[in-house]
Amino acid sequence: MLIWHKELWLIDHGATFYFHHSWSNWEKAAMSPFPYIKDHVLLPQATLVEEINDKMIALLPDEKLREITNLIPTEWLDWEDVEMKAEEIRAVYFQFLVQRRKHANNFVKQIQDARKTLV
User: Fold this and answer.
1) CA 50, CA 108: separation in Å to the nearest integer?
2) pLDDT level of residue 52 (50, 70, 90 thresholds)
3) Long-range contacts, 15-19 (Cβ 8 Å, 24+)
4) What is the Cα–Cα distance from 81 to 102, expressed in whole angstroms?
5) What predicted TM-score, i.e. pTM, was given to this entire model?
6) CA distance 24 to 11
7) CB 20 within 8 Å of CB 83
8) Residues 60, 69: Cα–Cα separation, whole Å
9) Which of 24, 39, 62, 92 is 20 to 30 A from 84 in CA distance terms?
10) For the CA atoms of the chain, what is the radius of gyration?
11) Helical H segments across the chain, by residue range
């Protein structure tokens, strides 16, 4: 959920992978903070971010992330405007998620900082 222009929007979680709209530097995107978190409708309730972060990291080892990315239908990865094959695109999604997990503390800090200005 997101409040944008004073309206509540339910968003598709796939849309939160901003890097897939431009493949120019997905590695940087994997480590970059998520500045729009400051607008998230549930930010005031995000009181256990550190605890949940640790639990989620434990629940998402490489094997689980591989399992998840293997569930992406191949036809969804058959893109006309990209020279990469479906399996190469799938591999980028996997690596993106691995890097996001590896740098999760960046996002925890950003959430905490955003909450300080809001709460």
Assistant:
1) 7
2) very high
3) 17/93, 17/96, 19/96
4) 30
5) 0.79
6) 24
7) no
8) 12
9) 62
10) 16
11) 26-31, 49-59, 62-70, 86-102, 104-118
Element (H, E) at 4: strand 2-4
Half-sphere exposure of 62 (CA within 13 A, CB side): 4
Query: C-alpha distances in angstroms, 21 versus 13, 24, 69, 82?
Result: 14, 9, 18, 11
C-alpha to C-alpha distance for 47 and 13, rounded to whole angstroms: 21
Provide the number of structural domains found in the chain.
1
Q: What is the pLDDT of residues 63-107, one digit of tens each?
A: 999 999 999 999 988 888 778 899 999 999 999 999 999 999 998
Higher pLDDT, 53 or 27: 53
Residue 13 in this model has a pLDDT that exceeds 70? no
Burial tier of 100 (Cβ tally within 10 Å: 0-12, 13-18, 19+):
buried
Q: Which residue range(s) make up the domain with 114?
A: 2-118
* CA gap 88, 33 in Å, rounded: 25
Whether 39 contacts 2, CB under 8 Å: yes
